[in-house]
Amino acid sequence: MDTDIQKRDFAQTLARGLACLERLAEADTPLTCTQVAHAMDVSRAAARRVLLTLESLGYVREERGVYGGTPKVLSLGRGVLGRTSVWNAAASIVVALADRVNEPCSISVLEGLDIMFVSRDSTRRVYTSRLGVGDRLPAYCSASGKMLLASLPVAELDRRLEGIVLEKQGPASVTDVGDLKTRLDETRQADFARAIDEMENGTISIAVPLRERSGRVVAAMSVASHRDRLSPEDLTSNVLPRLREAAREVEGVFRDFQERGWASL
User: What are the angstrom distances between the C-alpha of 104 and each of 32, 221, 241, 248, 257?
Assistant: First the structure.
């Protein structure tokens, strides 16, 4: 392509946004605004504008003055998402659990009011369409989503649910925000979540939190089935203990990555 055309069509703002994401991804720990500016070779004011824009779009999270990427960055490259290091390392645990219970198993992260699959055994069909890594489902009517929503600070949960309309998915899905908050309180106390007939008629699922070393919930691990194969009681009595055991293995993977310099998810 002609150099003049390249210069004319070059979008500097977009380039800076991508460069910022690259620098955050390369860093072993979250970076301050000044560090980002230095890494990008731009002014602190320019770096701050980029960071605030990416934060408002959900690609960057700020905590105590430092910035790091969020799981939403993974959605930019869903074709290679399954090979992302930590989730790739956890994939064998997901498959092993699916083999033990003979049902689909997944790990999901929270994106707004959706869950996004970051690791999934997709050899078994539960829903009418095959779901895989990078796909999304509404959080409020899935076990993983309710577990992740329940793990949010109350103020953050209120902010996300403010003015939201909960559309009916399955026959038992919750459409009232107040009722949803009550169920999330129960989930928080139990430290696991179930979704019965909430996504589709007959679908059932159960999820537990996945915590990094600090104790912060960063994902949820779940097993899904159908009433034709398992009862809701089976999920709690038979599947839940195995799910918790597998979740502890995944948290061991988290600890291993953190000990080798991986900061946080």
Answer: 40, 11, 16, 18, 26
Euclidean distance between CA atoms 143 and 198, whole angstroms: 9
Taking each helix axis from N to C terminus, what angle separates 240-259 and 85-101, rounded to the nearest 10 degrees? 160
Tell me the HSE value of 132 on the side-chain side, using a 13 A CA sphere. Answer: 8
Distance CA 108, CA 162 (A): 23
- Please give the Cα distance from 212 to 252 (Å, whole number): 9
Residues 6+ apart with CB under 8 A from 5: none
Residue with tokens 């699959």: 117
Residue type, 264: S
Please give the DSSP secondary-structure letter assigned to residue 73: G
Q: Which two tokens stand for residue 180?
A: 């949803």
- Distance between CA atoms of 75 and 116, rounded to whole angstroms? 8
Q: Quick check: 209 pLDDT over 80?
A: yes
**If we measure between CA atoms, which residue out of 134, 110, 127 comes closest to residue 199?**
127
Share of the chain above pLDDT 70, in %: 86
Q: Show the tokens assigned to 98.
A: 């699916």
- Is the pLDDT assigned to residue 50 strictly greater than 60? yes
pTM: 0.67
Which letter, b or e, does each residue of 1-19 get, where b requires 16 or more Cβ atoms within 10 Å of its Cβ?
eeeeeeeeeeeeeeebbeb
How far is residue 123 from each of residues 105, 196, 263, measured CA to CA in Å? 10, 22, 32
3-class DSSP state for residue 48? Answer: helix
Under DSSP, is residue 114 helix (H, G, I), strand (E, B) or coil? Answer: strand
pLDDT tens string 131-163: 667 778 888 899 999 999 999 988 888 888 888
pLDDT bucket at 17, cuts 50 / 70 / 90: confident
Nearest residue to 90 via CA among 119, 55, 112, 59: 119
